[in-house]
Amino acid sequence: MKVAYWGNCRKSGVTCALTAIGLTAVLTYPFKITIFENHYSENGVLRYLFPRKWPYCVAEPVHHYREGFFHENQHRMQNAGSMADYPVIELLEKGLYYVPQFTKNADLFDYQFHCNLMPVLKRYSEIAFIDTQRGNALSSKMILEEADVVVVLLKQDMYEIQSFFQNYSSLIPRAFFIISDYQRKSKNNLAKIISEFGFRKDCIGVIPHSEEFQFAAGYGRMIEYISTNYVGKGTREDYYFMQELKKTTFLLMQKVAFDRRLGEVF
């Protein structure tokens, strides 16, 4: 089951949402989820999971990986046939995994992902969350076309939402929508958005604005924040944030794992 996370505008919160939902899903359900990124970014998934002062802290939980793996063994990639041929970081034990970026050269990463990881991803039978670049990445169009579910990150802005419907209507049948950095006191609240655009309530969720969450994520402590607040031990705002994150995760995973017969969103 391939789940592409994508946004139709800049700074829509794709990577942060993918990471938060991946963590919440494996804490809630007995799933195995592997995270992929189809583009190089210094602000990728690991930014939210590990403090920046510990750049090599992921060394111990890495499987099939050592420093320089891809540079030394790129010839193996041409003949690789499964995920066993690629490095995988175990983020949460027996639940959440991550395929790390293997070069800081954005063009090389784009090319290698398209040529070598896309064939593996096509055959991948478990749940894959894919941070999908908007724009001209070689693999982005293919990922969006072949994904079982496309998680569309939207800003809480009526113009931006309208822009999605005008320009990307082909994604609607497989889409699950998330309003990122959601402000519940905004005049453009979820009820108004649903009414204005006709969303089905089971196909849209929110990730609320939270200073504490943003602070934790910015310092690489998202795992700690979500794990600590998962059982509701934080402040009232923390509780509200986690309840909405859990609800959004539940709605998405219903579509991903429990409803294999993907129907029309509208």
Tags for this entry?
alpha/beta; 11 helices; nine-stranded mixed sheet; about 270 residues; single chain
Explain what the structure shows.
α9 runs antiparallel to α10. The chain starts with a strand and ends in an 8-residue tail after the last helix. The chain contains 11 helices and 9 strands. The radius of gyration is 18 Å and the shape is globular. Strands 3-4-5-2-6-1-7-8-9 form a 9-stranded mixed β-sheet, with helices on both faces. The chain is an alpha/beta fold and 266 residues long. The longest helix is centred in the last third of the chain and has 23 residues. β4 and β5 form a beta hairpin. The C terminus is likely disordered. Helix content is 41%, strand content 17%.
Distance between the termini: 21 Å
Q: Give the helix/strand class.
A: alpha/beta
User: Main sheet, how many strands, which sense, barrel?
Assistant: 9 strands, mixed
What value does the average pLDDT take?
Answer: 84
Extract low-pLDDT stretches.
Answer: 55-81, 261-266
Compute the number of helices.
11
Percentage of residues in strands = 15-25%
The helix fraction, in percent, is 40-55%
Element order: H for helix, E for strand = EHEHEHHEEHEHEHEHEHHH
Order of strands across the main sheet: 3-4-5-2-6-1-7-8-9
Number of distinct beta strands:
9
Rg from C-alpha positions? Answer: 18 Å
